[in-house]
């Protein structure tokens, strides 16, 4: 569901169509697991993609490139993830050895995986143990190593010890309570990130927030750490204040945030507001998921074919760690995951990009791989009157399937709920546009319920069984007037 709230007198009519932004189906796409609906987040993804980890990875790869023949011991299947994030073409990988017998015989990094028991026959004089917390797995196979080999491990790209919350398990997600935010301070327009020290309510003590501000090119503009303390309170990061503090020029990039010393909750959630020196920049609050997705939906489209594009710009902060990376095809389709347009632009490391796009939008940006997206893509709408606002596309889940056993049961009540505020009708206009949130949703049986300030239901408006391609925008004010008139 996409909800728009406009102050009266400065409103932009919402378009009755939405579009999907996605990566498409490509055999060259990188296979990096990020988040599972069953298992949760993947700590390897966070550990490999951290900006500080990239610095250690470059040194590790440079060392391996000079080592001649390199064998890889891949006990947990992390070698392919490492190669997906970093350009290892200069490394001469001659053998890959695995622990799991199910992996024996599989192609891994250009080699046919061999059992670890054959590692003594390796011709390489350097072995990369492709895992973190490598001491124990290394000790278990030390008697199988060729005599005199040099050992390298992914531990060489670990974060500094003072940034690790759980030192017993490096891949614990509490070590990577991180997130990205679009961050811009230019041309009189500013951004403000607001989060809260909710880790204190879980027993977190002396938590800190490490921040890394990156320009559109991916260049680091500033790094700093601020104390969060032991109390629950709001934490605000304002681009205008940060720009003045570090004496920075105008920028439009991304802000990487990492909570150190948190407890109980490994997600760093935030709200992002935009504001300007002039009244033409409208504030629009939105959040971001710290796990990337294959598809994003809910980008507005014009009401008519020849109408002014509803989306003037889209922003995408990429966090892949190659210096230049050929992107995966990007597509846009009307309420469908099927791509209709593709781009093969290269994106700089951890960059924020905006570029050309199909006719329904003036400018757009592309994702290099699903794992490269730092957060939801942002789109900027500029109305005919010059008013601006930025919002985000919604994640469209690819891992959710309808449960056929539930469709005929009369026990499900209201089913899925999505609450949204209705601000005073004499000052604001609220419009809701139902959109599918998973690729498995073919239709949407929906009803709108409106409650007053006391919690009493005042209106129930059934929408019926909407098709995936339907676009039905609901103006709450007009809906209330319609029912009031009929009464």
Sequence-ordered SSE layout with sheet pairings:
Layout: E1 2-7, E2 17-22, E3 35-36, E4 40-41, H1 43-49, H2 51-65, E5 69-74, H3 79-85, E6 92-98, E7 107-108, E8 111-112, E9 114-115, E10 126-129, H4 135-141, E11 150-153, E12 177-185, E13 189-196, E14 207-214, E15 220-229, E16 234-238, H5 239-245, E17 251-260, E18 271-276, E19 286-287, E20 295-301, E21 313-317, E22 324-325, E23 331-334, E24 347-348, E25 352-353, E26 378-382, E27 388-392, E28 394-396, E29 428-433, E30 443-451, E31 457-467, E32 474-475, H6 476-486
Parallel strand pairs: 5-6, 5-10, 6-9, 10-11
Antiparallel strand pairs: 1-29, 2-20, 2-23, 3-4, 7-8, 12-17, 13-16, 13-18, 14-15, 14-17, 18-19, 20-28, 21-25, 21-26, 22-24, 26-27, 29-32, 30-31
Labels describing this entry:
487 residues; mainly beta; 5-stranded parallel sheet; 4-stranded antiparallel sheet
What does this molecule look like?
- The chain has 487 residues and is mainly β.
- It has helices spanning 43-49, 51-65, 79-85, 135-141, 239-245, 476-486; strands spanning 2-7, 17-22, 35-36, 40-41, 69-74, 92-98, 107-108, 111-112, 114-115, 126-129, 150-153, 177-185, 189-196, 207-214, 220-229, 234-238, 251-260, 271-276, 286-287, 295-301, 313-317, 324-325, 331-334, 347-348, 352-353, 378-382, 388-392, 394-396, 428-433, 443-451, 457-467, 474-475.
- The strands form ten sheets. Strands 9-6-5-10-11 form a five-stranded parallel beta sheet, covered by helices on one side.
- Strand 7 (107-108) and strand 8 form a beta hairpin.
- The two termini are 28 Å apart.
